[in-house]
From TrEMBL:
Family designation: Belongs to the LysR transcriptional regulatory family.
UniProt GO cellular component terms: protein-DNA complex
GO molecular function: DNA binding; DNA-binding transcription factor activity
Gene3D superfamilies noted in UniProt: Periplasmic binding protein-like II, Winged helix-like DNA-binding domain superfamily/Winged helix DNA-binding domain
CDD domains for the chain: PBP2_LTTR_aromatics_like
Source organism superkingdom: Bacteria
Listed name of the protein: Aromatic hydrocarbon utilization transcriptional regulator CatR (LysR family)
A Pfam family assignment: HTH_1
Domain HTH lysR-type, chain residue ranges per copy: 1-58
Keywords: DNA-binding, Transcription, Transcription regulation
């Protein structure tokens, strides 16, 4: 028995007339009658009582019609949901992010995506940049947010935002009174930085900036970026952080622009061959978010 035969049966059952059912189905009446007869033969029992001028369902036909309607509803729902999934309107996406994004931008981005696609499940994982890349390659993360550079031909990238780097100082530090600080002024300071394996590209970018300023930083403590803020406030040393961490508003720390205005970027990264419709829709929201950031920066 196939779905087509069931639809023929249901149409005849609803019309109680083979001629009208044939018109609805856009087929001739004789073939429709033969199809119903073939279905009854396959099932081994009659579906219609043809003894009267009006076609009536047998008790078995009544039961089959009830279940057939449920089946059609399930099939229609499955097709509808599959179509939504093909357009990225339902499904699931795993998003990874650095700790700094959690306090500047992630909430706004997720709110915008959920407003457009409320049926999509968004799962989140806070991961260091290198772990994000590893998880994307493993297929456990669909899209991540990392600092450049990303030198990986298997990954596609999209610029989310460009932001200045800032010097982070303990409150009361001698340099805190300056409105803008040259990196060279930090040559003799103790530094609190994140471990290189957490984000090799970004770490190396900072090291190049320090070398260009004429020194190699003396790192006395390593920690994740959010912990760096607390350690600087506690007087363990100074650091250089993305300006997005201003939103933490941590007491005991002073953030100052750097002479020359060195920048860092935030990139969205995903596997180049990932054809997920949900991912494509998420990227559209990321691009809108990036455009909004650029416009805000220009004003």
């Amino acid at each position: 028995m196939d779905l087509r035969h069931l639809r023929y049966f249901a149409t005849v059952a609803e019309e109680r007339h083979f001629g009208r059912a044939a018109e609805r189905l856009h087929i001739a009446q004789p073939p429709l009658s033969r199809q119903i007869q073939a279905l009854e033969k396959e099932l081994g029992f009659a579906l219609f009582d043809r003894s009267n001028r009006r076609v009536e369902l047998t008790p078995a036909g009544v039961v089959l019609l009830r279940h057939a309607r449920k089946l059609f509803e399930a099939v229609d729902l499955a097709v509808h949901e599959a179509k939504r999934a093909s357009h990225g309107e339902s499904g699931r996406i795993m998003v990874s992010y650095p700790s700094s994004l959690a306090y500047s931008g992630l909430t706004e981005l997720l709110r915008a995506f959920r407003a457009r696609f409320p049926q999509v499940e968004v799962a989140l994982r806070e991961l260091p940049p290198q772990h994000q890349v590893d998880e994307i390659h493993a297929g456990r993360v669909d899209i991540g947010f990392v600092r450049p550079p990303v030198d990986d031909p298997m990954l596609a990238t999209e610029l989310v935002r460009q932001e200045p780097l800032l010097v982070a100082l303990p409150e009361g530090h001698a340099l805190a009174s300056k409105s803008r600080i040259p990196l060279s002024a930090l040559a003799r300071e103790s530094f609190v930085l994140f471990p290189r394996p957490r984000g090799p590209g970004y770490f190396d970018h900072l090291m190049r900036l320090f070398r260009d300023a004429g020194f190699t930083p003396r790192i006395v403590q390593e920690a994740p970026q959010l912990d760096i803020v607390s350690l600087v406030a506690a007087g363990f040393g100074v650091s250089v952080l993305p300006s997005s961490l201003r939103s933490l508003r941590r007491a005991g720390i002073v953030l100052r622009p750097i002479v020359g205005n060195p920048q860092t970027a935030l990139l969205a990264v995903w596997l180049r061959d990932n054809r997920s419709a949900v991912l494509e829709e998420f990227l559209e929201v990321v691009r809108a978010f990036a455009l909004k950031n650029r416009r805000k920066k220009a004003t």
